[in-house]
Amino acid sequence: MAISTNLERRIFVSMADPDAGRELCDLLSGATAPVYTADVSLTDGTDLVFGTGLDAMLRWSTADADNHTLVIALGDDNQSVHITDKGAIATDWNVAANTHPTVYIHSNTTPATHYLAIGGHDGTTAHLDVRGGTTLALRVGGTTLVSLTATTMTLTDAHNIVLGTTTGTKIGTATTQKIGFYNATPVTQPAALTAQDTTITHTAPGTPDFAIQNLTSTSPFGFVTQDEGNTVLRVIANLQVRLAEVEARLESLGLVAAN
């Protein structure tokens, strides 16, 4: 690998040992060089530059005086980094150039077509993309919690969804969005229930009698006892109240439209 005179000078002057600097330059230039058995050091803020067009750089940056850090800098022509088996290092990846830094982690089975792409952050959206495979699995401690395919998201057994207790969480943010349960076809929010009639009023039975006998078949037709009739009215009124409560709860959850 040939290196520019400018790069050679940058490497050479940054080395603590000038002789080591010359040897490193020879190594990067493709010339015969010794094998290093000790550390090779670059001083702070010095770049190790790759490519004849200064395409990528590696620097221990001190730009943040409080938190020095290692920086990989990529040229504007293609901001891609590929991680692969050394046997595939010369592969033509056949991936379009990226304008935002993107890391490709390749499968060792078919590295050219099977990989995980991470990054591509354009200031609004970042990407996590499985290519050539079928599933993205999220694991903790070696156990899969969630798996994603092109059409499904599976939460494995004994893993729960825990929600906040202050503002809460919505499932669906508009009534036109569709949802279905237990393999039912997804639908939009169901219409409101039929409006409830006025709740009946009645005289409370002296002793509730839920064992209703056959109605009398002589004029006038009716209940055998007054308590039986008043008990039926009580049950009807109770059903009205309870159905109204069910309706209110369904409406509060958004499962049916409000009346």
Protein architecture, described:
This protein has 259 residues and is an alpha+beta fold. The protein has helices at residues 5-14, 18-29, 226-253, and strands spanning 47-50, 56-61, 69-74, 80-83, 102-106, 115-119, 127-131, 136-140, 143-148, 153-155. The protein folds into 3 domains: 5-74, no CATH class; 80-155, no CATH class; 176-259, no CATH class. Helix content is 19%, strand content 19%. It is rod-shaped and about 115 Å long. The N and C termini lie far apart (76 Å). Residues 1-16 have low confidence and may be disordered.
Record keyword descriptors for this entry.
3 domains; 259 residues; rod-shaped; alpha+beta; 3-stranded antiparallel sheet
Please sum up the structure shown.
This protein folds into 3 domains: 5-74, no CATH class; 80-155, no CATH class; 176-259, no CATH class.
